[in-house]
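Input for the complex:
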Amino acid sequence: MSSVRQVLAAGLDALNRPRRSAWRRNRHGSELAWAIAFVVPYAAVFFAFVVYPVAYALWMARDPALYRDLIASPLYAQTVINTALFVGLGVNVKMFLALMLSGFFMRRRWWVKATLPVFMLPWALPAIPAFVSFHWMLIGEEGLVDGLLSALFGIQGPLWFNDRGLALGSNIVAYIWKWMPFWTLTFYAARTAIPHEIYEAAAVDGATGSRRFTHVVLPLLGNLYLVCTLLSTLWTIGDFTTVSLVSEGAPAYSTDVLATLGFHYAFDAAQPSLGVAAVMSALPVLIPIVIILMCALQTREVQL
Amino acid sequence: MLHSGSRLRRGLVEAASVILVVALLIWSLMPVYNMLLIALDPDEGDIEFEGILWPPNPSLHSFRAVVTQGYWLVEDFWRQLANSFFIGLMTMFLTTLIGSLASFALGRMRLSGSWLLANAPLVTYAVPASFLVIPFVRLMANYGLSNSLWAIIAANVTFATPYAILILRQYARLIPIELDEAAQIDGASSGQVYRRVYVPLMAPALAAVGTFALLLAWNEYLYQYVLLSSTRNMTVAVAIAQFFNSDEAPWNYMMAAALIYSLPPIVIFYALRRYMSAGLTRGALKG
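Predicted:
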């Protein structure tokens, strides 16, 4: 980070120079042109691949009869519950553990530091191999988990994908395994950015251990935690890969989430409009989350 | 007594740390170990776990079969790996380029005042990628990109860029705006400021965002599965999933292919790791 420090030093230097407001006004026009040119590539992507498909999706799912069909379908109701459980448990358990583990990795022991790169492996490992491996690990008595259970404790392990609760739990555990490292790294980076003087000042005032966590770390990381949780919730509501590869919806579609159900409707049952309607029915949840996320980011900008 | 009590307490904390480290190692490595276990099994399609922690006759036969493309399900393996690379690297490059240009304009230029414009990228996440796959199929037909790798790249860039802009804008707060102004005083245009000041100083954040985009592309499976129909244009991710549709699939070949497919992102991730934690949230807490 020495480069950043140099930058900051150079910046302070620049601050001491006289302001150039008159010059700025002259340059306004050409700078605006540059700014527009810089935004154009992203705007093009945004309109071609976000606005157009979303409009197309809404147009495909415009028929109210589709939603009547969905509400009448027990499969849809079950899928909504599954999605809520998958997202609610998966995201919150993952974020909480990530916050705790990021604190653990701050410990100054070489073997704790050495564990961090290994712990990051699930994030670097592609989702497909990872979830396929989870599927085989839990495939029943031939799988590694039940094999270990019987070898170590002499218990016959369950058939994980024959029971809705166990299958749903397997999906959530696989999801947490895959994505916890990313958020742990995010919180870890944030914790290392807290200046050491703050900890020292808090220690002088008697805030150590758990009190340091509630009175120093939480207030500083609180907004970041909120932003990350919201972002992760948005991403997880649309998660397709975990469920489609770990439990594959088994037993009998009872662990499907919205993304996999929409896929079944569209590609297996050849009812694309119903599939789009199924996933678009999550919009009343998604849009408020995005608005809260924008506000949370806004407050942070004000704080800075 | 107080002294020995605190020593005991410290000892307990150390012991708990050791247990946690061991648990974390097992937790992180078990699925990877399971992949190795299946890949090293010489019997095709046999996944039986025999109560021992190592296959009785480990063999590299499955890796050889994949590398030499000696089985019909892996007959285009290298071509498919090249496709995966093309998609991953193009996603990485375009996300970093488009994201850095947009973050520069939104964070450091005249456009920075607009709250709505600055937040527009986040609107993308109101509809998750997987929810748009059905319209995307029709859309790509309209754009003439059916069965094209560019369709996948477009989808990946679309969903990686908003996060990239978010991270880059936060990190950019570490770089004083006066630096840009000083360069402009010296006659630099905004394009030159971007190239000579912004990009070099943003290197850690760009590395973080690039890694994020690469891993997103390497993790992505749904779009590749739906949009790429011919074997030659398939990626390894789809090829691995193809094993599930086959009746007599040799799972050890699948796991060997999966392990080889896992290597590139792991290598790139560990090569760029030093920048990652610096780039991810350095800007988030400054203040």
